[in-house]
Every structure is written in C-alpha cells, then in structure tokens.
Amino acid sequence: MNMQQRIRGKLETGLEPVFLEVLNESGQHNVPPGSESHFKVTVASARFIGKRLIDRHRLVNELLSEELAGPVHALSLHTLTPDEWFERAGEVPDSPPCLGGGKG
User: Fold this and answer.
1) Domain membership flag for residue 8
2) What CATH number corresponds to the domain at position 27?
3) In terms of residue numbers, what domain contains 41?
4) Which segments of the chain are extended strands (E)?
5) DSSP state string for 28-81
6) Domain total for the chain?
7) Contact 43, 63 (CB under 8 A)
8) In whole angstroms, what is the distance from residue 75 CA to residue 78 CA?
9) Domain presence at residue 77
10) Any bridge partners for residue 78, and if so which?
C-alpha cells in the first residue's frame, strides 16, 4: 500500500467523509522521482461541524500522526463540512508552486 492509499484509508475510517480527495503533489517539489512526501487533502465530513478550522486540522493531523512523523513532509488541508463543500460546488484553491529546495 502506498502512502496516498494509507492516508486515504485512515481519513475514510476516522472521518467518514462525504467527499475525500488525496493528491500526491510530490512531483511538484524538489524531491526524487517517485517520492511520497507532499500531499493535498480535500475532505468534507460531518465530523467538522461546529469545529474551528484549527480544530479540523488538528483532527486530521491526529489521524495521520504516524505519517507526519516520518515520510510525509507537507500536507495541504482543505477541511470542510458537507454544507461548506456543497456551497463551494466542490471548488478548493490550487496549491501554490513550490519555491523551496532550489526551485525559487
């Protein structure tokens, strides 16, 4: 199981999302080919209702604590309630271009 699948599995189990997308964005960064270190997660879950943004991120970080302690270097999070997800019509911002690691 690759890292993207691991992240997806843990978030599906822990959040029971109405929408979940896990993108490996490592290829947009100055890392070796095939790396699994930079991810963008968009997740809509009823578990976020009534929670501040920081608390939503903490919940995701807790679920992925093992991955964040090791192979995952960066995690871009878009954490939404189901209503927020539908109000946005599924739109979330693109990740900014990498400027680190000698690319800037």
Assistant:
1) yes
2) 3.30.300.90
3) 3-87
4) 19-24, 38-44, 74-80
5) GSSS-TT---EEEEEEE-GGGTT--HHHHHHHHHHHTHHHHTTT--EEEEEEE-
6) 1
7) no
8) 10
9) yes
10) 42
82 assigned to some structural domain? yes
Under DSSP, the state recorded for 97 is P
**How many angstroms separate the CA atoms of 66 and 60, rounded?**
11
For 77-88, how does the pLDDT look when each residue is reduced to its tens digit (9 = 90+)?
A: 999 999 999 998
Q: Counting every residue, how long is the chain?
A: 104
pLDDT band at 10 (very low <50, low <70, confident <90, very high): very high
pLDDT in tens, 18-51: 999 999 877 565 565 666 777 899 999 999 999 9
Asked if the structure places residue 101 within a domain, the reply is no
Q: Please, are residues 103 and 30 in contact by the beta-carbon 8 Å criterion?
A: yes
pLDDT value, residue 104: 44
Name the one residue in this structure whose structure tokens are 């890292």: 3
